[in-house]
Amino acid sequence: MKADLELVDEVKAGEGKAFTELVKRHQTALLRVCARMTRDHELAEDIVQESFVKAYRKINMFEGRSSFKSWLFQIAINTARNKLRSQRFEVVNIDDVHMATNESAEATLIHLDIKAILRTEVEKLPEKQRRALELRIYEDLSFNEIAQIMECPYDTAKANYRHGLLKVKESLEENEMLRNWVGSEDSLFSEIHLTLAEVEG
Amino acid sequence: MKTKSGKPTESWIEYLEDELDPSLREDYAKLLLNSKADEKILEDLKRLRGSIRHADPYKKSEFNQKLFENIMSEIHHTPVQPRWQIIITQPKTWGPIAASVILFLGLSTGLVGGISQKLFSFLNPSSTAPLNMVQTAHDKSDLIVQEAFENPEVLAQTLNLHKTDEDFTLDRLAYHAEDMSDDELAQVMEDILK
């Protein structure tokens, strides 16, 4: 399998078909990142499409100082940011989010509640911490790649991730619903993990 | 935030992410064997990380064939821009260049003024004609300004604005592009790309 950089060189040399492989490789991850940013699947698809077109058009500006994937993610994140700004996208206030829980079904829906709490806590993080955490945990990117995508120094990328993870940890420890459910604070994370892992199989 | 052993939780995150210096990592690994508190912190962090991953709402995204087809159809009608064209249309290259030019002109004017004054004093120790000194400095600064406009490459080299000769040429071209006819632009591009 050819490396991304080889494919990029082929595109630069006029082999447009090589770009097909690059799209195939990165489309799904890019869509996930954009969907997380916009929370709107259709808008995310538009951004992915626009990002690939931009990347193709400006492929000659890519000098290989970062990985192609980082460069592409950077284009997508900037495109998404501009779109959201232009649409005056309103971020949902976390206080207005009502989880659709049914008290009588609490036992069977507990794993969904936990998932919702986890997602909420991640979404509550400041933007840079959330992005670093999502890129690291969801997309398995290295801190080098995260730094390139977020256009920040390596240590800043790591610090954003670290602070984000700690904040989520503290929020979960203080979450009353989770504490009531688990009973003992000591086993909070093992219970959460077990519940989610069982359901996911 | 510290564990009972005194190791901060932050450094256990570094350990978990394999970001610790190898020598420190060894110490941490040894510590884990003897400290239940540290072991629990690390295990909790692992479980937290795993749980966040499990809760990813987009984890099960599958390849979207329709989106792929849309992208490729759009790409099919999209030309790859030559590098020079991208640089010309990028507005962000102007700011630093303009700032550097202003800075350079400001510094050179002051420098020439200072040198002229010293030279004048040296040659005419008894003279007390400040107006003449200012006039001399002013004339020299005009020369510097004129030189900077006529030979901007000297300015660029002095300030180290460009990584390569090609960058420099393209930036210069960008400067003049608006005033050039299509034919002139095509001719210059042909010369550059030879």
Structure description:
Chain A is mainly α. Chain A contains ten helices and no strands. In chain B, 73% of the residues lie in helices and 0% in strands. In chain B, helix 6 (94-123) runs antiparallel to helix 7 (130-150) and helix 7 (130-150) crosses helix 8. Chain B starts with 8 loop residues before the first helix and ends with a helix. The chains are: A mainly alpha (201), B mainly alpha (194).
**So what's the oligomer here?**
heterodimer
**Radius of gyration of chain B (Å):** 32 Å
Whole-angstrom Rg of chain A: 20 Å
Binned, the helix content of chain B reads over 70%
How far is the N terminus from the C terminus of chain A?
32 Å
Q: How much of the sequence of chain B is in beta strands?
A: under 5%
Share in helix of chain A = over 70%
How confident overall, as mean pLDDT of chain A?
A: 85
- Spans of chain B of 5+ residues with little confidence (pLDDT < 50)? none
> Which stretches of chain A are poorly predicted, pLDDT < 50 over at least 5 residues?
96-108
Secondary-structure element order of chain B, as H and E? HHHHHHHHHH
Q: How would you classify the helix and strand content of chain A by structural class?
A: mainly alpha
Q: Could you say which structural class the secondary elements and strand pairing of chain B correspond to?
A: mainly alpha
List keywords for this structure.
heterodimer, A: 201 residues, mainly alpha, 10 helices, B: mainly alpha, 73% helix
